[in-house]
Amino acid sequence: MDDFLLKAKIPRVLIVDDERIIRSVLNRVLAQDGYQISEAEDGQQCLDFCEKELPDIILLDAQMPILDGFDCCQQLHQIYRQDCPPVLMVTALDDEKSIDMAFEVGAIDYVTKPIKWAVLRQRVRRLIQTGWAIKELRQLAFVDSLTQLPNRRRFDEYIHHEWQRLLTEHAPLSLILSDIDFFKAYNDSYGHLAGDGCLRQVATLIQSSLKDRSTLATRYGGEEFAIVLPNVSIVDAKSIATKIMASVHASQIEHKFSSIQPYITLSFGVACTVPIQQQSVEQLIETADRALYEAKQKGRNRIACIALSCQIDDMAELTEGLWQELA
User: Fold this and answer.
1) Catalytic residue (choose from 39, 41, 162, 223)
2) In the annotation, is 39 catalytic?
């Protein structure tokens, strides 16, 4: 195995083809280059595999039963967006319409059968290298170096994207803003190195409390975190905030200089709406910020929720628009 494969993890290649003999030959050829190989028989199996583990590249046949390569590729990009692995179409279709369609649905490259193995191996290698380089650039641009959570730039990109998507789907979008209580006192008393360690611990606790792939937890700034929750009602968003709060309480990160508890606590502002043309992302963010302010004004270490829209079915219990709950 060469230096390219040794410098990081061993690349995972997913071969998707309904013909067993094709999968077997591709497996044998690419295994010579030291890749980890996985196989799927159709597009649906490909999607199922990616739910568990995203490969470094997908070799995708165009013509398959259940879900063909074109629809599969399109769905992969809809689900994973910028995190979608590079897709290399490997197919017998060589007409102009099929080639155009492959690139339209998001394929990065296109190889026709019968396959020229030397060409295929070089293209696979190049696409993996390119994919890794793009990931490294995104890491620098969109990840907070201290907490390793996505940063404010990524938050802005993601929440605007989800707003537009849910605007057409008429589905709810929730936002949680969370702030570490009395963090300035923590920094002043324990020192900035300890403060950095506290931020890392809280970030880890927040991330470990979230299971849905579409949920994005970010470092919003300073000691504040933002969690974008597509397709999540305000009741479910409040439950997620409660889970995070319980996790932070259970960790009992010492904070002797807090006015409310001898350990680190968080305040939460939760906002939710079903996006409509008359509203904006900025209104959702402002509402979550207002809820967070309300939680802090009421004593901190609590959750405040505000619903922007009366379109949300399960909001009957929130008719006054605001709900605070002491942890």
Assistant:
1) 223
2) no
